[in-house]
Design goal:
Low-confidence stretches: 1-27
Strand order of the largest sheet: 3-6-7
Largest sheet: 3 strands, antiparallel
CATH architecture of one domain: Roll
CATH topology of one domain: Nucleotide Exchange Factor Grpe, Chain A, domain 2
Helix content: 55-70%
Strand content: 15-25%
Structural class: alpha+beta
Shape: elongated
CATH superfamily of one domain: Head domain of nucleotide exchange factor GrpE
Mean pLDDT: 76
Number of helices: 4
Order of helices and strands: EEHHHHEEEEEE
Distance between the termini: 180 Å
Length: 250
């Protein structure tokens, strides 16, 4: 290729400028390194400028005033309040649950104590009543011994019978005292108006001289505790008969 110099430019035969490779090929190594270095510096400066522009844009965005929608702010505040209310209610619910569990445990213990107290009360009541019955049995044994002693002394049968009757009468009186001690009283029936709640009629007779059904005889005594009937009185009842009246035709 034939080269000629025109206005300090290297031009090939076709009249076109030579490329950088031709120049670098024609120059020394230091000139080639300088060109590469200049090109690299240009790229670095452009990248640095681009990064700086992005940083300034980000800074302007951060420095710009941040304006929120008032409705969104209000909703956020309400949400915070509801969260606080929920936490408070949950704490109260947990406290009430704990209190309820403790109260339930206390109630179960109370029921157990009441059952035990009732059982103990029954046992003590039976014990007291049994003690009185045992004493009555002792009285019966003493009455039998007394009757036997009277016979052994050569007393007559009438005397022995009289002694035995007195002993039994005392025992019967003692029994009534014990029953009354426990609140058990005899049902008053003799001469009273017949009451099926307290009296059991085992015998009935018609009587037109009375105007209401009346107990005339008590065959077996009845007993009660207040209004609770332990045993009804077995009685004979005089039943009132309504008198019929007939008028003359006028």
């Amino acid at each position: 290729m034939v080269k000629k110099k025109n206005d300090n430019l290297d031009i090939d035969k076709g009249g076109e400028p030579l490329g950088a490779d031709h120049l670098m090929g024609a120059g020394d190594d230091s000139a080639q390194e300088q060109v590469v270095h200049d090109l690299a510096d240009g790229d670095d400066r452009r990248n640095a400028d681009r990064r700086a522009a992005e940083r300034r844009k980000e800074e302007r965005r951060k420095d710009a005033p941040h304006i929120e929608d008032p409705e969104l702010v209000s909703l956020r505040e309400k949400l915070v309040e509801k969260d606080e209310e929920f936490i408070t209610i949950q704490a109260e619910a947990n406290s009430m649950k704990d209190l309820l569990q403790r109260r339930q445990a206390d109630f179960e213990n109370y029921k157990k104590r009441m059952v035990k107290m009732q059982e103990d009360g029954k046992r003590f009541a039976i014990k007291d009543f049994a003690t009185e019955i045992i004493q009555i049995n002792d009285d019966l044994l003493r009455a039998l011994e007394a009757s036997s002693s009277v016979l052994q002394t050569g007393a007559t049968c009438d005397e022995s019978h009289s002694s035995f009757v007195q002993g039994v009468s005392l025992i019967s009186k003692r029994i009534e005292e014990i029953l009354e001690k426990f609140g058990i009283v005899e049902i008053d029936a003799q001469g009273k108006e017949f009451d099926p709640n307290f009296h059991e009629a085992v015998e009935i007779e018609m009587d037109d001289s009375i105007d209401r059904d009346t107990v005339t005889t008590v065959h077996q005594k009845g007993f009660r505790i207040d209004d609770l009937v332990i045993r009804s009185s077995k009685v004979k009842v005089a039943k009132a008969v309504k008198k019929s009246t007939t008028g003359n035709d006028s």
